[in-house]
Amino acid sequence: MRYVTPGTRLCFASEYEAGPGTYEREEYIYSSVVGIVQEFIPTVSTNTGEEKKQSKIITVSKEKHQSSIPDVGNIITGKVIRMTTREAVVSIMVVGNIPCKDDYQGIIRSQDVRATEKDKVKIIESYRLGDIVKAEVISLGDARSYYLSTAKNEYGVIYAQSVAGAMMVPISWQNMQCTKTKAVELRKCAKPEDLFSKNQ
Amino acid sequence: MSTQTYEAETFRKLQPQEYLRKFLLKEVRPDGRELKQFRQTTVNLGCISTTNGSSLVRIGNTTVVCGIKAEVSVPKQTSTKEGYLVPNVELSPMCSPKFKPGPPSEHAQVLSENINRLLKSASILDLNTLCIHEGSAVWVLYADIVCVNYDGNVFDACVIGLITALSNVKLPKATFAEEEGLVKATEELLIPLNLSRLPYPATFSIFDGQYLLVDPTEVEESVAHEVITIICDEAGQICTVWKVGGISCTPKHLEKCISIARERYIEIAAIVENEEKSNNLI
Amino acid sequence: MADRRRIQGPEVSVAPIILKSPNKIQLLDENLCRRNGRNLEDIRSIYLKTGLISQANGSAFIELSKTKIVCGVYGPRQTKIPAFSGKGNLNCEIKFAPFSCPKRRPPYRDSQEKELSQLIYEALTPSIRLDLLPKSTIDIYITILENDGTASCLAAAITCASVAVADAGIEMLDLVPACSASYINGQIFMDSDLIEEKRESGSLVLSYMPSLKEITHILQSGEVELNLTSQAIEQCTDSCSKIYSIMIDSLLLPIQNMK
Prior knowledge:
- Chain B: This is Ribosomal RNA-processing protein 43.
- Chain B: GO terms for molecular function: mRNA 3'-UTR AU-rich region binding.
- The complex is a heterotrimer of chains A (about 200), B (about 280) and C (about 260).
- Helix content of chain A is about 0%, strand content about 45%.
- Chain A has no helices and 16 strands.
- Chain A has strands spanning about 5, 10, 15-20, 20-25, 30, 35-40, 55-60, 75-85, 85-95, 100-110, 130-140, 145-150, 155-160, 170, 175-180, 185.
- The radius of gyration of chain A is 22 Å and the shape is elongated.
- In chain B, helix 1 (about 5-15) crosses helix 2 (about 15-25).
- Chain B is an alpha+beta fold.
- In chain B, the strands form 3 sheets. In chain B, strands 1, 2, 3, 4, 5 and 6 form a 6-stranded mixed beta sheet that branches. Chain B has a 4-stranded antiparallel beta sheet with strand order 10-9-11-12, sandwiched between helices. A two-stranded antiparallel sheet of chain B has the order 7-8.
- Chain B has 6 helices and 12 strands.
- Chain C starts with 16 loop residues before the first strand and ends with a helix.
- Chain C has helices at about 110-125, 150-165, 195-200, 225-259; strands at about 15-20, 45-50, 60-65, 65-80, 90-95, 135-145, 180-185, 185-190, 200-210, 215-220.
- Chain C has one domain (about 45-255): GHMP Kinase, N-terminal domain (Ribosomal Protein S5, domain 2, 2-Layer Sandwich).
- Chain C is α+β, with helices and mostly antiparallel strands and about 260 residues long.
- The chains are: A mainly beta (about 200), B alpha+beta (about 280), C alpha+beta (about 260).
- Chains B and C meet through strand 3, strand 4, helix 3, strand 6 and strand 8 of B and strand 1, strand 4 and strand 6 of C.
């Protein structure tokens, strides 16, 4: 295994294509992170069935992970920290599977809560303060926040406390029931799939 | 890293209290310690040569550096022989993501104020011994404590750092030249301070009103809001009991804390003595 | 004005006048050897370690005999600046511990710290791939625990910060070692300490990306002849290459030991 640091010259740019963790400058490819050098040949078969010849890609897999930052298409987990009639503000705590060291701010606008009947959505009937939600990043948003969406079935509230302070379980895509008082509260639930289950 | 550890990390981030509770049910703590186990503590004396006395203290990952510099000033009108001892704690944004640049945060102010109160109420150093010339010149000892890594229980580290740095202080031989109104000092530093007692602290956190966590880390401190600090001296006398935040604690807990604090005193005293010995050999 | 947020001492205090022995310290002996046994072109031995601050994303500690500097890197994290930016934002802050210099420094930020922060920012910015980090900020905080020569301190701080950034896993073009030199009586003293620095007529601090052979920052002060400057630049780039290998070792050793 070959360990490298930023700035290590890896190879000629004519031999390989620069993948993640590397960059090309003049006729060479250099590493841009601390990690292990890896190379692979992408196998992309075109729709005509012919194997298209691809050049080899060289990458450096990060040995030290950078604190994760959200990007469009990422799945995030976060906590609802503020609500208005038009949007819910979410503190993004986990991107993909990697927790962020510092929280980022995201917004779920009312039109992004669910896929159908967007005009009838009421934020208060979808989320409450303190709920843990799973959502998708749909744009880098404005200067302050990322825009998030829970329109897909698998996104929405994954953990919530009822008014009585007990945990709630989802009973349909828009209802959750308190485990203690059996009271039903409105939420936009994520399709149940236990986040912390070990049998995945 | 495997996905398993990622999941644990995710769980910790989203449900910190639940995460800690799961560990405590099995009588261990997230870093593998027992409930009443302190983290490894090291003391390094005289590490900064621009000071009159210095000490670097590490408790687990928590690291603080205390440096003491002596300057000369005029004593107060009311107490013409008394010198000054000025402790300040600095929690820079470097040591934790919680702190922002700028003037001392409330947290830092509380730490400084508590340490100042400890110095005064436990009369660790007789300020009259800092006199150079009565009514005209006294020593001012600036004790600045810089936190390098904030991983919980910083107060303990600060107090140990301050006390050991004070015992490391060497002052030059100084004379007051009356006609010029100046203090002249020798280049070599020789005179140690005369400390009347050497108190060391022990800090505890109470989680869920029942688990007594000794020497909490940053993760534990952020979810267990009840903190008890007990400072005792070489005779086992208690100098300070300090309890902040949260709900009440039972007398039984308090008694247990005090007995652990006394054991901890012996442990720290041994560490410091070892370091002093090896320091003198060099 | 009294600062209520700190414990206050007396209003005025001064360092005592030190009675020094009258003989002047000789910087060089007859064999052109310096006080601590090194030659004119030698730098002090360096101790460099990463990962000291567990709370930070990346950190490093550097020790050049007496000089001691710690650096913590936080980020990339959400930027506090209100305007949208497709590029990351770099923020550098350097702080002298109050006890780090022969004279006590007041605890609040002074103009020298602001100047040094700006210099470090300029030296590091070309090396970091900020275009990959939209809407984010990288904060670099540096504390000088002991200062033994300001120019060499600045150079060591740049070296240390660059390693800490790499330790944080942030993508960069190259590591940036930095080195300083002093001009004293028409001679070049590499990596001068505080006593040598007091006698200098000028100094040079150079930051260099050895792999790309590019200079990111150069700062010359004082009055020097042109050919002496070009000689100093050459010597500094040579020393930077030596420091570079120490930086690489400090980053790779912890990983190799883990496996």
